[in-house]
Design brief:
Keywords: Annexin, Calcium, Calcium/phospholipid-binding, Repeat. By secondary structure, the protein is mainly α. The protein has 4 domains: 17-73, Orthogonal Bundle (Annexin V, domain 1), CATH 1.10.220; 90-157, Annexin (Annexin V, domain 1, Orthogonal Bundle); 169-245, Annexin (Annexin V, domain 1, Orthogonal Bundle); 247-316, Annexin (Annexin V, domain 1, Orthogonal Bundle). Helix content is 71%, strand content 0%. The protein contains 19 helices and no strands. Helix 1 crosses helix 3 (47-61), helix 6 (88-100) runs antiparallel to helix 7 and helix 6 packs across helix 8 (119-133). The longest helix has 29 residues, at 231-259.
């Protein structure tokens, strides 16, 4: 996965969980709530530090910090703060569960979470999901999806992808030819070949395959996927290809979709900013400005308001 490590949240030095717990207690105790104090603390601590604060809060006051925050806050601001307070894998599992429960399935969220993570990240999500919901993620996902899209996600979830290792150029040429033969070189498309290669090969190997594909076909594998495949499978395969090549660009495009159009896709906006803040949000915001000639901060300021806006802007960090 072509991640350019550039977190916007790195935690604070000289961290003191008891002091932060006391400051949060003071911000919520008595008449009114000091929302800015909550933002200042929780958007600058790493998730590991936030978990230590939560433990200190329970130890010192006999109370659940997340429950206290929920009782004091509301709306999308509450959603941001609760997301920040949740361990990363648990948060993503909650989002996966939510997007599959009830009427209909949010396939875009499935793609965003499952097609953009590394093999170790997927393994952690799978373990956490079964612990939280007493049900395998693959089983739940299979009941909510179908066809080649389901087969691709299943391959990803069961850990079919090879471990990272140096790319094998000869194998890359062979697999690039297989992709070409399964798509552009024939009438109709053999989606199973695309699924197998894009779900099984390591990201280093896929990068090499995509280079070889350009040599064979004269255009990119992403262009071929968009021409040969449609529906959710196209979106899923495209996400894998784009993230292998430039994950920051893929997430920047997803954020653009969340803040443009009729209304704001707040859940998507929150999920990406929170889940990428300790990984590569710094690179994503640079890519956003390069692609759209606008800063991510200015877009978020224009589409959100109040404490919700202040919390998101704090996560994005200075330009």
């Amino acid at each position: 996965m072509a991640y350019q490590r550039a977190p916007t949240v790195v935690g604070v030095p000289n961290f003191n969980a008891v002091e932060d717990a006391a400051a949060l207690r003071a911000a919520m105790k008595g008449f009114g709530t000091d929302e800015q104090a909550i933002i200042d603390i929780l958007t600058t601590r790493s998730n590991m530090q936030r978990q230590a604060i939560s433990q200190a809060f329970t130890r010192e006051y006999g109370r659940d910090l997340i429950e206290d925050l929920k009782s004091e806050l509301g709306g999308h601001f509450e959603d941001v703060i609760v997301a920040l307070m949740t361990p990363p894998e648990e948060y993503l599992c909650q989002e996966l569960h939510r997007c599959m429960e009830g009427m209909g399935t949010d396939e875009d969220t499935l793609v965003e979470i499952l097609c953009t993570r590394t093999k170790p990240e997927i393994a952690a999500i799978v373990d956490t999901y079964e612990r939280l919901y007493d049900r395998p993620l693959a089983e739940h996902m299979c009941s909510e999806t179908s066809g080649d899209f389901r087969r691709l996600l299943t391959l990803i979830v069961v850990g079919a992808r090879a471990d990272e290792a140096p790319a094998d150029p000869e194998r890359a040429r062979e697999l690039a030819q297989e992709l070409y033969d399964a798509g552009e070189a024939k009438w109709g498309t053999d989606e199973e070949v695309f699924n197998r290669i894009l779900a099984h090969e390591s990201f280093a190997q896929l990068r090499q395959i995509f280079e070889e594909y350009k040599n064979i076909a004269g255009r990119t594998v992403e262009q071929a996927i968009k021409a040969e495949i449609d529906g959710e499978l196209k979106d899923a395969l495209s996400a894998i290809v784009e993230c292998v090549q430039n994950a920051s660009s893929w997430f920047a495009t997803r954020l653009r979709g969340a803040v443009q159009g009729l209304g704001t896709a707040d859940r998507t906006l929150i999920r990406i900013l929170v889940s990428r803040s300790e990984l590569d949000l710094g690179a994503i915001k640079l890519e956003y400005e390069r692609l759209y000639d606008k800063t991510l901060e200015s877009e978020v300021r224009g589409e959100t308001s109040g404490d919700y806006k202040r919390a998101l802007v704090a996560l994005i960090g200075p330009a």
